[in-house]
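Subject: mismatched residue count in predicted assembly?

I count 864 residues in my input, but I want to confirm that the predicted structure covers every chain. Input:
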Amino acid sequence: MATTKQAIEVSGLHKNFGRTAALSGLDLRVDTGQVAGFLGPNGAGKSTTIRILLGLLKADGGTARMLGADPWADAVALHRRVAYVPGEVNLWPNLTGGQAISILSKLHGQVDEQRRSQLLERFALDPSKKARSYSKGNRQKVALIAALSSRAELLLLDEPTSGLDPLMEQVFTSCIREAAAEGRSVLLSSHIFAEVEKLCDTVTIIRDGQTVEAGRLSDLRHLQRTEVTVEVSGAAASLAAVEGIEDFKLSGTTASFSVDPEQLPGVLAALAQYSPRNLVSTPPSLEDLFLRHYSDQVPAPVTARGGGLR
Amino acid sequence: MTTGTAHGRHAAAEHLGQPATSARGTSTLAGVGIAAWFILRRNWLRLGLWALVLASMIPIVYDSQQQAFPTQQARDAYAQVANTPAVAAMTGLPYAAGSLGGILVIKIWMTLAVALAFAVVFLVTRNGRADEEAGRTELLRATALGRHAYPTANYLVSAGLCLLTGLLISLLCLSVALPAAGSWIMGASIAGTGLAFIGLAAICGQLASTSRGANSLAVALIGLFYFIRAGADLQAEGMAPSALSWFSPIGWAQNMRAYGEDNWWPLMALAFLGAAGCLVALRIDSSRDLGSGILPERRSAASAGPFTTTALGLALRLQRSSLIGWFIGAAVSGLFFGSVARSMGTLLDPENPFARNFVGTGHSMLDGVLGIFVAFNALLAAAFAIQCLGAARSEEESGRLEQQLAGALSRGWWVGAHLLIAVLGSGLMLLLAGALTGASSQGAGDPGQLAGACLAFWPAVLSMLGLQLLAFGFLPRLTTAITWSVYGLSAMAAMFGGLFSLSQDAIRLTPFGAIARVPAEELSWTPLVVLVLISLVLAAAGMARFNRRDILGA
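Triage response: the counts match. Full output below for your records.
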């Protein structure tokens, strides 16, 4: 196995569809053996990036390397070492799920029969039914089983759990943990923050085809601030002046603010003077971080015409 | 004032609380108007084109026939010789060949009626089974639309296309001053054929669980009824319709006899068949689960064998049922052509200029007839090849190609697998159809020679595939439209070019017109070589582009 330090290294990637720019200078790094989260709202360019990495789309600019090779020129050789799960799995309606798994996993190189039957059992999929009769979740399972039963070094997962029930999501989580333990690299594009927080070592957040935040989950600056909500007896307005308190908001006797962990002792000491009756402190979530990057985006207006048969 | 408000409140509460009690709300047809409007919105261009193209054939063919038979004398002479088995088998009994109206019926009626049947079959499937397969019906059913509203709207819009086409045809016939009674029957009989096939297509859409299956089943029915009436017209004595003709709705419509007896009553039978078919379909629709067909799903293989997991194996497996269907079709038509060749050849009058024009300047009438059948076999094989390679584009369109190319499969191998099936399949089909035409011809033609004669059309088939690959590379979304349009035009030019006043030289420049029809003509190698070279260039350019372009979804 020819290992390179980076499983995926993308910099300044550009891709246009006609006049629309899907990617405008995207950067993405996945270190070998790591699970990388890839976050962004619909249309931000996650799937486009993954399709470029698979050699299905040709980049208009920038560089992309995967497992040390060129994803466009070396597509076929690379795909023996890569497995892919799309967010929208389309299967041959007249073949069974089991046949589709055989075909897809064979296309990814070696097939591990034992692993395949284990996965069929864990994901509770009946492989002898025609794909036509499968629900979205079952189609997703087919692609997951095909990808996970291969011996790929790198898993490209594009919203792989869409349509899975919570039980199956747990199965998926443990499968990815096992894959990571085996030293495989994973790129996980997702909308589910809990999933990314549970599984990923690093995270890349993109917006409008550009990277806005990237790094180890534990290192992300904004993730280090603690949100505090406190109910005090007296007037709390003067709290705003306490050193270390930011984003201060006050409603009645309830104050909320964010604090850098290093300044927490000082802030707590200052708080004591206000005789707090109730205090809640929450570590900031990935969701807060994500929303921070998108909160200034005006949501698209819902038009009244959208309700009919159109 | 107070009472008014209370009354208003009461009315509002009633409106909010019990909207479902109104007649419109509970009927299984609730919302049929909206559904019809929606279908029209999605299909107006398609509907308009079908109606316009079909109707516009009337003035074009009328003009060419008026030039071919300018005087009553010429028409009378034609009427003496018009009743040949070829004409009877292909377009029906020439019961009024002595009038321009009757000649118009001979030349174009069958084409228009069968084309309209195809149009409604595709339309009914498109807005019926195809929507259901894609899950769009589910979305609609979940709204306040009655259970039967959408299918009923589908049938009504299709019926609208039939009536519009018929009306346009009648008006155009009237506009060239053909007799009024016959002109109305002309439009009505063609519209009636369409109406009958709406009912049949509706039932097919209930039986099959895929749009492809529904289309194949309905097209097979068109073919079956066409052959039944061909047999009926071949065995008819004189101009009286044979009893067998009543076993085919196309036969019923023929028996309306525009510009002849001008019968209205078979139209009732056609409309009844259409309506009855739709009612049966609606009945089945309400007794089955959404998304299912009538045949229950079977359990089958839980894994794929080693061959199916290869690119070629998968392509073959996906096309298996289609391949079987096409080869059966080619075999049946080959046998049919052979079995009618001798009777057609001996009955054709060599002195008749029309017959000469139709079968070409061959050695004998029999050879001329065989030559035509060879060309028909070739057109069938070409249609097969195009449909076969078209599967490649559907794999891309459906998103399934992405998952395959995400594996260790090169684009070249993948297209190559599909191409190989189309190329070898069409070659085999040509040999089979030719050999069977010869074998069933009671000695009129030699199976070996006819197989070779059919195979000579392989380069023309390949040129269609080359064009298809070129389109697939450069204009993937238009591949189907471009290829089938060129195929349709080439087929028309080669088979009926004379009818549209195309010169022989011009016909020789079209793919199917370029190739000599053995045994009627001497085989010339030049066009074969040129066509193969053109095919190679087109295919290479298309492949090169496909290797470089983005993979596109729908």
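The longest helix of chain B spans residues 32-68. Marking this ticket as 'not a bug'.
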